Amino acid sequence: MTNRKAYMAALITVVFWSSAFVGIRIGLGSFSPYHLVLFRFLVASLVFVALVPIFKIKALPRRSWLRVIMSGLVGLTIYHTALSIGEQTVDPATASFIIAGAPIMSAILASCFLKERYTRWGWLGVLISFLGVVIITGVGSSFHRDALLIVLSTVATSVYFVVEKPLLATYRTLDVTAWVTWAGTVPMLFYWHGFFGQLSRASFDAVGWIIYIGIFPAALAYLTWNIALANADATQVTPFLYLSPILAAALSWVMLHQMPGAPVWVGGTLVLVGVILVQRYGKERGPLGRDLSVS
Fold first, then answer.
1. What is the CA radius of gyration of the chain?
2. Calpha distance 181→256 (Å, rounded)
3. Is the dihedral of CA 204, 205, 211, 212 positive or negative?
């Protein structure tokens, strides 16, 4: 039953996160990347405020505040700002393929800072995924620049899960998710200037999609992913993330009539092959840890 609960939570998460790449692209039609991120996480923060009296969300001890602030700043503020800027020219499916390489960066960070040891297969997977990212990001000058911002997002989300992991091992999942969301939203208030002007001129579709990605991919999907990780090993649920680029590509084609070219599919396939090698055969013992791609 525990695994079934974890698998259902992981599947819900992946569907929401895949749709977020499309939602960001639609939202950018009416909002700057900065105002889009601000709007999205104001909505997400209000979701958790509404849940406070229902689920009795508690304040975390002071000793955890620095880790909470770092998790919010890196995993939300930096990650989502860089991703939204990048998606101005990078299509949703391509962005999703790049983000799928997050477990590779997590493996490198774990090797450097957590002293985790990897097999030759693991390091081969790192090299294969790195080659895939190089292929994806090497198409055109403006694309190259914005794709590199999405690579920055990949680095940020990898650092985020390394920093946040001890919090989830110590405190209730809902409490951690709520406080990290609030901590990540506060720095976004620096984007406030001009927000209401854009909001007043925005299309109904753009506003609706940003509210959607604020409630579901930004608030609830972070919670369901943490629930999945709390009820199963990371190695059991991370394979669901391999579906994300495919779902993002399908949604992008249906809703935006956009489909990445052959180099992106080749590079994306290499990224996923490398990730699979690292997660299944990479470590000398134990699971890889909380490696995932988010949006």
1. 18
2. 29
3. positive
> Directed axis angle between helix 65-72 and helix 141-170, to 10°?
160
Contact criterion met (CB below 8 Å) for 68 and 168: no
Tokens of 92: 């949703």
Report the candidate in 73, 110, 25, 90 with the shortest Cα–Cα distance to residue 284.
110
- Spatial separation of the C-alpha atoms in residues 211 and 42, rounded to whole Å: 9
Q: Which amino acid is at 122?
A: G
pTM of the entire predicted model = 0.84
> What pLDDT digit, counting tens, does each position of 222-276 carry?
888 878 877 776 666 777 777 888 899 899 999 998 888 888 888 888 888 888 8
Furthest-apart CA atoms within the chain: distance in Å:
55
Distances (CA, A) of 159 to 72, 115, 212, 246, 272: 11, 15, 26, 25, 20
Cβ atoms of residues 282 and 110 within 8 Å: no
Using an 8 Å Cβ cutoff, are 116 and 171 in contact?
A: no
Cβ(212)–Cβ(18) below 8 Å: no
Could you give the CA distance from residue 15 to residue 156 in angstroms, rounded to a whole number?
Answer: 21
Q: Which two tokens stand for residue 139?
A: 């198409």
Spatial separation of the C-alpha atoms in residues 107 and 35, rounded to whole Å: 33
